[in-house]
Fold this protein.
Amino acid sequence: MQGLGIGAFTLDWATVSSYLFSPLISPFFATVNIFFGYVLFVYVMLPIAYWGFNLYNTKTFPIFSTNLFMSNGTIYDITSIVNDQFMINMDAYSKAGKVNLSIFFALCYGLSFATITATVTHVGIFYGKEIYQRFRASRKEKPDIHTRLMKKYDDIPGRWFYSLMALSISVSLLLCTILKHEVQLPWWGLIFALGMAFIFTLPISIITATTNQAIAFLSDFKLGHYMKIPPKSMFLVQWWVRYNYILSAALDAGVAFMGVVLYFSLTMEMKSIHWWGITGEHCPLASCPTAKGVNLGTDSICPVF
């Protein structure tokens, strides 16, 4: 895939819902927010960074590519900078030079980190006061009708959660220590990841809840609370329930059904369909750099400007 996708259009539901899930289960404001964010990123920020400022010498590389590049625009040979255990060889890396990304992926990675920070900031500004008030009032509020009805069941002992957490952390630390060459994650990296998960669970839960999605584990207990299901049963069985609109469910089912039909009618018969929609890019020059003097060799179709 190359270029900016101008004029791209599809009625394939599998493609529509493949990255952002079904747009029918999200509120309208969330879908509009994603759309304008996409337009701002792809058709404003990206062209300005590429053609306007030549950010990070990005014209030396294609505007959109998943590959890694040398400073001269050729493909980076990753195997030359790793050892037989797939660990980076810093001496070889210093000799080969730094890794370069296309401007699309460079901005994607940067904005992904910005999104994480923005999540904490957004929740702190818009929900911080409410979170603090609810935390203080949690021990003083009178139980509602649902909580009173659930009192007839035995509550989940805290040791169940603590034991499960201790077991998971212990096994993970053991794997990071014994299989450190295979796992390639130091023990302190695991501790850091656990801390990050602890910090971001609440902000991300609030964001996903306001956009009509759910944190699976927590939503199950909420469902069990309103349906008067014993907490211990919820813990052991975990009711994985996902609500969806009828149309979205029908489209998802249609995609699955067609997948089965295509498997039995084509894949099992060793047949395939060839048409222009699956032959890749029809503009090979979209994968070329635009900087002056970049020569990718005689085997390349890219012109030298």
